[in-house]
Q: What sequence folds into this?
């Protein structure tokens, strides 16, 4: 039977959303980003009213998130032990809940749509960037695959990141996308943004300071289903000790929960050996492990060992369901087998670790998707370091997507970012977001190199998302309908 116009529109929204994932890592077709969102804009303009626009937005978002982040199924089913008949619907519900944000954007677009074309362009961009920001804040936030991340280096638009951050990039891409509905003026706007962005990429916001520090980033590649098993415990400790011993450096990083128990339960002689190995060149080691306090709370932490005094960073932005159980969902978590799923959050502001002659701001796994939280350690910190374990998501898009996010954090802050991961992607990211080195994922190895701390501040590191939000509000005021429209 021939498809009706409504069904064709719904199918187009679903496919356009799914195609949007190609703009992100590992596909990296950053230049493609305006096209799926142009399709979204055109679909919204053709809808009969706010309800239809909301449905188009929902289908666009559902296709986008189902293609882009359905790797949560792997963590729930394959490694979390949840039966497929529960993990599958849970994944669909998760993607559908994320699709509510573009659905809200679609509804608001038609509800208050201006008549003038260029006000429509501004209004669309405001709603896309605004709902990206809202998704990164509401219910502890899930900013993964915010549109602006598609413009991480090598995109010329990455030049706007030190000014306006990821949501400023979301706004820029959405503006370009909607303007292409009139292709001549749209191409002119695209060329202008690309030229200005390229020029901004030449600006040096921060400068290196001090001598280069030799680094060793350890990738253990411990299978997730073996990580917390007692029979694998000593093999894990031995693997990390041997890799550290064979690759001396001034700063050595181990992944999140690399030492898979409470640090005070590790053999004292083992900790002494790690400290001795780390201090061979007056250096230090930072390892992911677990810590606890006298009140029974426990933390996902990073501890330093070596020439410098013992220091601890505890993860402060926890992952819902993975690291804490939201109220009312204990029944859901009872169907999974996720160890250590009731962590306590560390303090919101923690002093950078003074190691290897530098101030290193630690963030653990998912924390580096929150740019405003990363900048809390600036300008004191000269180096950013992320310890991650994305083995929970298997061979999926999660690892390259996470690396892309980290690259944008480096550009926003003007700081090098070091990533030590269990299964990938372990990398050295320069302060301009370029990759100085990356290990093959799902291999056991060590990435060696050098890094220099950076000093100074980008506008984003001073003001966070306030710049992008102020611009969003300003454009919303300009876009609002006028009587003559």
A:
């Amino acid at each position: 039977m021939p498809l009706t116009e409504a069904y064709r529109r719904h199918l187009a929204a679903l496919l356009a959303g799914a195609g949007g994932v190609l703009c992100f890592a590992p596909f990296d077709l950053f230049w493609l980003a305006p096209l799926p969102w142009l399709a979204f804009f055109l679909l919204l303009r053709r809808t009969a009213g706010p309800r239809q626009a909301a449905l188009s937005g929902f289908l666009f978002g559902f296709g986008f998130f189902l293609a882009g982040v359905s790797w949560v199924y792997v963590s729930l089913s394959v490694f979390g032990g949840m039966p497929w008949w529960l993990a599958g619907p849970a994944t669909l519900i998760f993607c559908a809940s994320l699709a509510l944000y573009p659905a809200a954007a679609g509804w608001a677009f038609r509800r208050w749509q201006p008549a003038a074309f260029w006000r429509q362009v501004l209004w669309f961009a405001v709603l896309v960037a605004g709902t990206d920001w809202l998704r990164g804040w509401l219910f502890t936030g899930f900013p993964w695959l915010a549109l602006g991340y598609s413009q991480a280096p090598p995109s010329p638009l990455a030049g706007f990141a030190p000014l306006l951050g990821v949501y400023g990039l979301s706004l820029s891409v959405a503006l370009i996308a909607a303007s292409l509905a009139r292709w001549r003026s749209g191409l002119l706007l695209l060329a202008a943004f690309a030229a200005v962005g390229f020029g901004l990429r030449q600006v040096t916001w921060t400068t290196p300071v001090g001598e280069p520090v030799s680094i060793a980033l350890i990738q253990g590649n411990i299978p997730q289903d073996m990580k917390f098993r007692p029979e694998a415990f000593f093999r894990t400790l031995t693997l990390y000790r041997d890799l550290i011993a064979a690759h001396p450096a001034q700063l050595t990083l181990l992944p999140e929960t690399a030492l898979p128990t409470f640090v005070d339960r590790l053999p004292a002689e083992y900790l002494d050996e790690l400290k001795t190995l780390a201090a061979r060149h007056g250096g230090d080691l930072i390892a992911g492990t677990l810590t606890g306090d006298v009140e029974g709370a426990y933390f996902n932490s990073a501890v330093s060992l070596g020439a410098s005094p013992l220091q601890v960073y505890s993860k402060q932005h926890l992952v819902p369901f993975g690291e804490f159980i939201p109220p009312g969902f204990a029944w859901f978590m009872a169907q999974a087998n996720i160890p250590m799923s009731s962590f306590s959050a560390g303090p919101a502001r923690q002093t950078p670790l003074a190691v290897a002659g530098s101030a290193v701001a630690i963030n653990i796994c998912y924390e580096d998707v929150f740019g405003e939280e990363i900048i809390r350690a600036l300008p004191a910190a000269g180096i950013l370091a992320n310890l991650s374990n994305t083995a929970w998501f298997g061979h999926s898009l999660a690892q390259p997507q996470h690396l892309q996010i980290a690259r944008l954090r480096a550009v926003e802050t003007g700081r090098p970012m070091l990533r030590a991961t269990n299964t990938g992607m372990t990398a050295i990211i320069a302060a301009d977001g370029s990759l100085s080195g990356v290990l093959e994922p799902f291999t056991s190895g060590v990435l060696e190199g050098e890094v220099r701390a950076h000093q100074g501040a980008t506008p984003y590191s001073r003001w966070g998302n306030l710049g992008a939000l102020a611009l969003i509000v300003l454009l919303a005021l300009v876009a609002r309908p006028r009587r003559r429209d």
The two ends are 41 Å apart (CA to CA).
